[in-house]
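Running this now, will post back.
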Amino acid sequence: MIKKSLIKSFNRALLYLIEMLRIKIEVLISFVVSSSNHKRNQLLSKCEQNNSAHFVNPFMLRQAQHERLNLLPVKQCKEISLFKTPRLVACLMMLIASACTTAPERNAVDTYGVVPSQWSIADSATHRIEAEWLHVFADPALTTLVTHALSNNFQLKAAAARVDAAREQAVIAGAARWPQLAFTPGYQRVDTGAKGNEYGAFEALFSLSWEIDVWGRIKASQQAEQQDADAIAADYHAARLSLAARTAQSYFALIEARLQADVAEQSIKDRRTIADLVRGRFSRGLTRGLDLRLALTDLANAEAQLADARNQVQLISRRLDVLLGRYPSVANDANPIAKTLPQPPATLSAGLPSELLQRRPDLTAAFSRLQAMDLRVESAQKALLPRITLTASGGTSSPALTDLVDPRAVAWNLAMGLMQPIFTGGRLKGEIRLNEALTQEALNQYQSTALNAFREVEQALAAEQWLRAQEQALQEAVVQTEASRKLAVTSYQQGLIEILTLLDSYRSTLNAQSAHLIVQRQLLTNRIDLYLALGGGV
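Update: finished.
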């Protein structure tokens, strides 16, 4: 019985709401057409002069209510039919168009503009790149460190927490699309002041509110939050790739620093040998004291270089520890790492430039933010349309707790309403223009991010060619300086060259070995930068 009564009340309220919606539209249109209250009064008088058994339209009845309490049945006038005025039809069409406004459909490639068909480096292959790049170095120690970093890095964990927060924010934004139901049980005790007039009552009350999302305004807002959540998830993916790349680059930098220290130690041993040789010749009167001073100076410089190399080892080691999410301690130097730098992998297939727009996570994030702003523009435009709300409340109150479950004691009410913004001081229009401006900002930011992504790939592809040529030249330089150093020692012992020539040969050997190690590490670092620029995974 109660269920049937609720259904009948809901149907009556729905019919009333539909009628009120029609009245509200006519009110809006009449304000556009009517230029003064005098004209509206003339229209009402004209209708009342043509009385018949038909009722006037609801808008004219509302006007008549302001004049007198009794409503006269009058004939609906064809001369003032609201929907036969061209300006009114145009306003109605604008209202319908606002209700049908949706966010534009965008494509990542078309949104950027013209994308080249291939990279400018002719040797770069165009087939799809590998999904993961870590295994190409074939270094178990590197794989272990990267895996540890991805599991324990605090910044990455913070990025993951931001993803969870964004997902829940989207849930919160979408909650407004559903009815909000609350239940409030209670008990109150009342004393009227008179003797024996004290009583208590149990209460069980509920309330319901629901904004019916007729135009999709709330849905667009929820979808915008979901796009933002997708963007933050893409940011997390980008942070994950960046962490893996920085860990690998720090790993190779640590290997290089240790090799530089080994080269410096060997150089000190060689310089001490030279210093002992010069000291022996000086003691026998075969050379000047200046030669000994120069040899000792060169030895001191080599010791300073060793101290700097060892300092670089501890700096890079502690930086790697932070990436791994552990305390930066010298004791961590015992972790197993490779003794030499690996050879650079073979030439990488870079894929097509258009694939980059859909593969790189930072571009995915920028595009999702652009789509979010499109949806916010849609939501702001639909905020100009009427809002339909449904509210209900009810409950029961009884001195006996058992009576609360008696359906005959329940009192309730149900109401539906409509709210049409008419004047907001420019707030709603301002929100539309604000979101349109932010959409343009997001569009230009996306295009800028894409352009920078193309630059990073082109730069890394070109750098790899020059670094390979530099590495081959320095490898040859190491061979030649080593040979010249041996010849210089023999020549000095035979008195054929000066001490400066001998010391210069040692310095040339040290510089060539150091430069060769640097360019080997740069090749590996650049390859990792290329993987990162192409959006390769781990």
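The longest strand covers residues 198-212. More later if anyone needs it.
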